[in-house]
Amino acid sequence: MRTLFARIALVATAVVNTLFGLASAEGERNPNVLIIKNMDNHPRELHFRAEGPASLLSHKMIGHNIQITAGDTHWLEVPYGWNGNFVAFVIGSAPKEDRVLAEFAFQVDGRIGTWYDVSAVTTHNDQEGVHWIYPLSEAGDKSGCETFPCETSYKVWNHDKNTKYTTDTRMVIELYSS
């Protein structure tokens, strides 16, 4: 029975990829996936914003806002070429604009991988949302902090040393309160 469901899931994924232009002539592309781990006992809401490309600015591929229950892991597929960010906050707290951001740019300038960082440019002391981003394959560096501020988050606008690149398109994001 499990094999039947796995086959159905593969067929459904192939159909969706074809319909939304995610399949390529050379074969299947690896999907862009955000693996969002809510690692403590607080449910959180995530607010997403697309930065580009222009064709995806109004795309509702991720619903723009999602909620994740305490202790849950949420796998979220995003379109090929998407770049943008999200903030995370504990449900019931004020959804302030000055939150630490999880930032991503998939397939920029024809590259196959992902640029990513945890951005603390607008605030250096948000302790209840995004803390770490790293590739699922562990083929790249971690960006972020255990506790903000720190030296391993993006803190200076424009070309910070803590913006990372990986060929992996599956990114893990850790959310918790410190």
Describe the structure in your own words.
The chain has 178 residues and is mostly beta strands. It has 2 domains: 1-29; 31-175, Thaumatin (Sandwich). Helix content is 10%, strand content 38%. The chain has one helix at residues 2-19, and strands at residues 23-24, 27-28, 32-38, 44-52, 65-68, 73-78, 83-90, 101-106, 114-119, 130-135, 143-144, 164-166, 170-175. The strands form 3 sheets. Strands 5-4-7-8-9-12 form a 6-stranded antiparallel β-sheet, with no helix packed on it. A hairpin with a 7-residue loop joins strand 10 (130-135) and strand 11. The chain is globular. 30% of the residues are buried.
Short synopsis of the structure:
Keywords: Signal. This protein has 178 residues and is mostly beta strands. It has two domains: 1-29; 31-175, Thaumatin (Sandwich).
CATH architecture of the largest domain: Sandwich
What structural class results from the helix and strand content?
mainly beta
* Mass-distribution shape: globular
Q: What is the straight-line distance between the termini?
A: 42 Å
Q: Please count the beta strands (DSSP E, at least 2 residues each).
A: 13
Integer average pLDDT:
78
The number of domains? 2
What would the keywords be for this entry?
DNase1 protein, 2 domains, 1 helix, signal, 178 residues, 5-stranded mixed beta sheet
Topology:
Layout: H1 2-19, E1 23-24, E2 27-28, E3 32-38, E4 44-52, E5 65-68, E6 73-78, E7 83-90, E8 101-106, E9 114-119, E10 130-135, E11 143-144, E12 164-166, E13 170-175
